Amino acid sequence: MDWGMKNRLARIIRPDTGRGVMLAVDHGYFLGPTERLEVPRKTIQPLLPYADSLMITRGVLRTSVDANFPIPVVLRVSGGSSIIGKDLSNEKITTSIKEAIRLNVTALALSIFVGAQHEHESLISLAKLVDEGEEYGIPVLAVTAVGKELEKRDARYLSLACRIAAEFGAHLVKTYYCENFEKVVNSCPVPVIIAGGPKLANELDALQLTYDALQAGAVGVDMGRNIWQSDYPVSMIKAVRAIVHENVSVKEAHELFNKLKNTEQSTKTATSV
Known about the structure:
It contains twelve helices and ten strands. The longest helix is centred in the C-terminal third of the chain and has 23 residues, at 250-272. The protein starts with a helix and ends with a helix. It has helices at 3-12, 28-31, 40-44, 58-64, 97-102, 119-136, 155-167, 181-186, 203-215, 225-228, 233-246, 250-272, and strands at 20-24, 53-56, 73-76, 78-79, 92-93, 107-112, 140-144, 172-175, 192-195, 220-223. Helices cover 45% and strands 15% of the residues. The model has no long low-confidence stretch (mean pLDDT 95). It has a single domain (3-272), classed as Alpha-Beta Barrel (TIM Barrel). The strands form two sheets. An eight-stranded parallel barrel has the order 1-2-3-6-7-8-9-10, surrounded by six helices. It has a two-stranded antiparallel sheet with strand order 4-5. The chain is α/β, with parallel strands linked by helices.
């Protein structure tokens, strides 16, 4: 691995902790104006100082992120289907490598749909993207998407999908947490990042998910809705960050969240007056 590739990966996974907090805000590419991400800039701006990297599309990057803020960008480059379409697996590469270089991105991200109708196309897209990324020293994050079939999120399926992604050359893999997650991590020879997934019932559950995934071998989280759909998103990302980089317990992280949310609420109240 050359210097450029290593340097870009070090921006996503901090060398001092071996972990990373990625903020996912790419949902609109198939979900449209997701709740509390209707105005992307308003959602993203307060969270930027606490994220190690940002997973995002080129459109929202250009329109909603301050170019003067030094945030590493993991650029979503696949798409082509919407939540109201027939098949979410029908994706192709939507952004060129030249465009990614112009945007000064740190990594490229695309979804693979193992076992779905368009499995073949998504895996070939991964292979081609890895080839292009290697040429320019840009790492590729493969997302093991399950479309609308959430029941696929078990260790057997996710181990299969993650291992295939690594075999095709992905430098990082993003997947879901599941029971026996150690089996998923141990069978994948590249770093695994955990997806936050849909909004959980409360912040404690999301903090528990973060902790459990890291204990099972994940190198970080790519969390979106469980941060910015919280009533206290800044407090939540700080609590997640404490688990990831400071090795605090779930109890300590939740206590931190409860302490910080009072300050965040006061700030919101003062701003609205």
